[in-house]
Design a protein that fits this description.
The longest helix is centred in the N-terminal third of the chain and has 13 residues, at about 1-15. The strands form 4 sheets. Strands 1-3-4-7-2 form a 5-stranded mixed sheet. Strands 5, 6, 8, 9 and 10 form a 5-stranded antiparallel sheet that branches. Strands 14, 15, 17, 18 and 19 form a 5-stranded antiparallel sheet that branches. It has helices spanning about 1-15, 75-80, 85, 145-150; strands spanning about 25, 30-35, 50-60, 60-70, 90-95, 100-105, 135-145, 155-165, 165, 170-175, 195, 210-215, 220-225, 230-240, 245-250, 255-260, 275-285, 285-290, 290-299. It is built from 4 helices and 19 strands. By secondary structure, the chain is mostly beta strands.
Amino acid sequence: MRVIMAVLGLLLSAAPAVPAPADVLVIEKQPWTGALPQSPRFAPGRSGLDFALVPATGSKGPTLALLGTALLPKRFGETYAGRIEGAIRIVAVDLRTGELYENSAEPRNTVPLSKVMNPNPQPNSSSSSTTGDDPVETYFNVDLRVQLGIPTHAARYAVFVWLDELMSPVRLAQLPGESLTGRPPKPVDGAAVGLHFGVTDQTPPVGEGIALRSDGSKVYGIVSAAARQSMFRVVALDFRSRSLSSLAFALPKREGAFDFDLSVLGGADPSATGPQKTFVLVGWGTTWSPVLVVDRGSR
């Protein structure tokens, strides 16, 4: 028996080491900036917002790291100067509960962007942080769970990055954790939160997805039959206050058109001067409308 055990010990000690799991990014500080090998790159002549999601370990355990890339026209640099990461919004919608989580890509406890941005930069402004027509490029990275305050249970999210009229592709993310039991909440009654349903003279033509148009502070939308789902979210970003507001709603059966006034979402700063704009999205899962820019004038 001793001989057998000795031989077994020699075999085990000589066995090759168990391969390590797939590379997992270790987040030592977050958020952080700078390009990583997994960060998306834009092809020559292209610009916009994009991101990659990679498995990671952070301060609260297993998570996903969002590695973002922004290549933007010069005017964004003139408006937000060195605070592009503060202007960018990272949004995640829980596909089971409908809950929305969002935050900028900046560290917490920074000076509010609304107090330092230049909402109406002039050509050749001395405050411009760029020269010529050079685009603004930045790489921003966050622990998705920590930065957005997402709960520790396992869940599937629709994730995108948003900056005013620009939106990244929408990607599905599975965050690790213990399974959540119980039934998801029932969809919200849209009429109870200020939405009206039915086609009007202002309803945009129906396309293949979700179409929006505005008239003053009213937003009119329609969902094609192919894009209908059990729940939708309307999300509004106020240009001056940088406040993001949102509500979830369900479409009545056999109805695809809706409208609402932006006042039901709030978010605007009544004391702000200069351009007054709201950027609006409606969608669910990976199907979202193009960004609607509601220009409320200037004061």
